[in-house]
Amino acid sequence: xxxxxxxxxxxxxxxxxxxxxxxxxxxxxxxxxxxxxxxxxxxxxxxxxxxxxxxxxxxxxxxxxxxxxxxxxxxxxxxxxxxxxxxxxxxxxxxxxxxxxxxxxxxxxxxxxxxxxxxxxxxxxxxxxxxxxxxxxxxxxxxxxxxxxxxxxxxxxxxxxxxxxxxxxxxxxxxxxxxxxxxxxxxxxxxxxxxxxxxxxxxxxxxxxxxxxxxxxxxxxxxxxxxxxxxxxxxxxxxxxxxxxxxxxxxxxxxxxxxxxxxxxxxxxxxxxxxxxxxx
Length: 280
Ligand SMILES: Nc1ncnc2c1ncn2[C@@H]1O[C@H](COP(=O)(O)OP(=O)(O)OP(=O)(O)O)[C@@H](O)[C@H]1O
Hints:
Bound molecules: adenosine-5'-triphosphate
Strand order of the largest sheet: 6-7-8-3-9-10
Number of helices: 10
Shape: globular
Radius of gyration: 18 Å
Mean pLDDT: 89
CATH architecture of the domain at 33-127 and 197-275: 3-Layer(aba) Sandwich
Helix content: 25-40%
Low-confidence stretches: 1-16
Number of strands: 10
């Protein structure tokens, strides 16, 4: 995204200990890998945006992708649900599998894949439809059976929005506040019951209260889903994620480890410099 802040300015609090308030680290050693990336390379035309990205993302956890603008975080996120297919110049090579199945195999239907891998974008983007229809949208277009009223209610509850909207489900989603709209988009993403939820800076357009609600929600969602979140905000990554992937300029994954390790004792000097704001 090009309209985001430069992380080396506001969000990188040089004097602040980013480990303040860090979430309790989960023991992830016994969790299965859900997303496995092996030597993933991405080009836009002749420009290479990602180089040999290799990592194993554990299920039911929050993985943060951090790094300076243009280092390829969003590009990697879009590899996981094949959103890069929609960009004519994009070419992906390597293995990107979900539960052992390469999502780039010829027999994978990208639409079915996106049912398993939901996505929430930086700017809340509800459809110009009722709150109810926004949440039910994926159920209808993907012909998902079941009691839609019940799924809509459950999804809105899961997105911590039900109490605020239960008496106005017929009103337009566009009439909600920015933070409510983003929670509506999260409800829409979880209604088809995906396994993985991709979030591309989901709180960067929101005020601090709405941001805090989204952060709480992300942590709760990881009880049932695998959340992979791009953020420019180091404190946010430290607070809510279990694993952190640090991408640096040139589309390189420099370090991927438990969040606590990345923020307290990274292996790479470049990562330490980036995290402490001495980015060069
Ligand atoms: N649709 C596209 N067409 C051509 N080049 C692109 C496209 N999208 C991204 N790129 C290029 O790929 C590189 C990685 O971009 P990407 O948006 O993935 O980085 P990012 O780390 O998510 O950046 P930001 O933090 O600013 O959102 C950049 O050089 C960018 O200009």
